Amino acid sequence: MAAAAAASAPQQLSDEELFSQLRRYGLSPGPVTESTRPVYLKKLKKLREEEQQQQHRSGGRGHKTRNSNNNNTAAASIAATGPAPAGAVGMGVRPVSGDLAHFRTPGGLGRVSASGPENPVGGPGGASSAPTAGSKVLLGFSSDESDVEVSPRDQAGGGGAAAAAAGGETGPAQTNNHIGGGGALGVDSSRIFPNSLPPSAAVAAPGSLRINHSNHTGANHTYLQNAYGKPKLSEPEEELLQQFKREEVSPTGGFSAHYLSMFLLTAACLFFLILGLTYLGMRGTSVSEDGGLSIKNPFDETFGTIQENEKNLMMNTLYKLHDRLAQLAGDHECGSSSQRTLSVQEAAAYLKNLGPEYEDMFNMSLQWIFENGKDVGIRCVGYGPDEQLTNVTDVQFLQSTRPLMSFWCRFRRAFITVTHRLLLLCLGVVMVCVVLRYMKYRWTKEEEETRQMYDMVIKIIDVLRSHNEACQENKDLQPFMPIPHVRDSLILPHDRKRMKKIWDRAVDFLAANESRVRTETRRIGGADFLVWRWIQPSASCDKILVIPSKVWQGQAFHLDRRNSPPNSLTPCLKIRNMFDPVMEIGDQWHLAIQEAILEKCSDNDGIVHIAVDKNSREGCVYVKCLSPEYAGKAFKALHGSWFDGKLVTVKYLRLDRYHHRFPHALTCNTPLKPSNKHMNSMSHLRLRTGLANSQGGS
Amino acid sequence: QDDNLPKEPRLRDFVAKPMGEKPVGSLAGIGKVLGKKLEERGFDKAYVVLGQFLVLKKDEDLFREWLKDTCGANAKQSWDCFGCLREWCDAFL
């Protein structure tokens, strides 16, 4: 294995060895000092474990050496912007060594590792020496491997060009590592510099760097080949697309929870159903036992005079009779026969069929049944159903009070009963649900209206307060405002009818609960108006308590060449950190954000499309302008400003990606304006600077 | 070095101007306890931590790992500190 030759216990590695080991994995580490050493050791350990896993997984290597040539030149010319090209060449060295590991003896490998520490590589400064060292290594192998033809000049030239270009790019390049999940990039690829190396090449190298960490066999040459084979736009496309996608909420987590709850619900219902059916089934079987019991017990009490054998005989008679009657009744209940009762003559005939001794006992047993007041399972009826029986001789029919039904019949009846009851239950539940939903709906509607009412109240207070302040400055104005005027200035005409109820509630609220506003009646211009007069409390407490939200609060730093691109690149912007989706309440807050952006860029007539991504954790807003110049103006106005306590950053997006995500924006070309003239989000700035124009520092 | 300040103003104050000789506790995410630990290791000023951040080539994983090992910062604290230094570098470097 490649690591075997130079590997020792990590703690014994010297700084240089650690450095070269990390380089072999394609990493481009910073200097290994006493403070960075532990972190790098951990990283090395992790890389080694991954490598071992990959080695176990991958079988033979069909790595063509011819392609290793391509790898080297490809590696050399691909310039990584953030990570130095030393890393790129390190990658070039490594595949060769990895490939040749299977063709070489460890002696050859010794050369690779030996040459490693020789490189005094440390950051971009070592870039120029690295290509030559790399070529040295390769030349060393070329004598053995005829296919590997690498001209040192190409290597150095490529490496040198790469170094120069990389050096130029490290300035403005930014590392956005926290985006690096899928694309695994150490660079901010969505910053588009059209006058640089092809972004695909820049992107492909770090991408392949990371991939090579995990699997440096077939994947290596296929990926690099793809870097040339595929169209150059695929990589940055992927990255940009992932930038968009990452902010979409993944719904898979929600699905599994939903399914789980449904499953549990059905399981519980099924369980209870089975329980109910079993219970009912049990009830059916218990019928016959009861009948037997009740006959036994009263027998001992009342017929003490009869002898033992006669007793048994009578018992048997009664049992037989009971069974016959029960069977008859069961058939009747289940619908197969229409006769429920057995006439006395038929009963006697039946008993005679069973045996002669039964017939004799028949009258006695009949008498016993008749005289026995309790329910023994057989009932004596006369001709009519309610006829009172006074004597045994009046008895005409015998009837079973406990029908004996077949299992299937019982089950069917039980099932029907159960179904009916379940149905009723479900109906009840559904009705309760409906009632609850309705109540919930009413409740939310009520809440919404109350919230709107409070919003309205706050707006009214703001208007009154600002009017009052204007009055302080301008003594000609009246110190009160007619209520209809306030309403008309706050509510758009097409909303007035809809908001009438809310407005009235707000007016009542102010009249009842707001001490700073007094309702009066005044005569203005000959007509009576209800007006509001603002009563100014002591100035200090007002300003301290009210912390306006969603306002622009100034600029963090001046924009210059160092922290913004020199010229506007595209007409599309991505503005970050405008909000925190977790903290926002309600449904309309995104409108406030849009308003704020429009107001901040109020002198910029080129914004044609705004979209607030409500789900993004980073608080992203996407803006499209008419042309890159307008976008540049907006960039200067927004980048680095403080909004609602958060530092806003802006970057450019590609136009086609923007249209892909917002197809609606393709047709937008009318400049957007803030919806009202109040410029609420700029109020802080106005107060501070006292000037209308609060965009400084561009 | 006030722990009770909400984090946002700290970030804002830090990024608003060159860091100069600010103490390490002025970094976002670094409170009293962490600041003390860092000082014990020799990182007594914010610019020293900045140095470490740059030496690790502004790599997020490496820096946050280092911060965790050095003073025991949790994920949020290291994220805040990293973000703060990155913002500062974006603005001034």
From TrEMBL, chain B:
Any coiled-coil regions, as ranges: none
InterPro entries associated with the record: BAF (IPR051387), BAF_prot (IPR004122), BAF_sf (IPR036617)
Keyword Acetylation appears in the UniProt entry: yes
Entry GO terms, CC: condensed chromosome; cytoplasm; nuclear envelope
SMART domains: BAF
Pfam families: SAM_BAF (PF02961)
Protein keywords: Acetylation, Chromosome, Cytoplasm, DNA-binding, Nucleus, Phosphoprotein
Compartments it resides in: Chromosome; Cytoplasm; Nucleus envelope
Signal peptide region: none
GO BP terms, alphabetized: chromosome organization
GO terms assigned for molecular function: DNA binding
Description of how the protein assembles with itself and partners: Homodimer. Heterodimerizes with BANF2. Interacts with ANKLE2/LEM4, leading to decreased phosphorylation by VRK1 and promoting dephosphorylation by protein phosphatase 2A (PP2A). Binds non-specifically to double-stranded DNA, and is found as a hexamer or dodecamer upon DNA binding. Binds to LEM domain-containing nuclear proteins such as LEMD3/MAN1, TMPO/LAP2 and EMD (emerin). Interacts with ANKLE1 (via LEM domain); the interaction may favor BANF1 dimerization. Interacts with CRX and LMNA (lamin-A). Binds linker histone H1.1 and core histones H3. Interacts with LEMD2 (via LEM domain).
Similarity annotation: Belongs to the BAF family.
Protein name: Barrier-to-autointegration factor
Species for this entry: Myotis lucifugus (Little brown bat)
Gene transcribed to yield this protein: LOC102429094
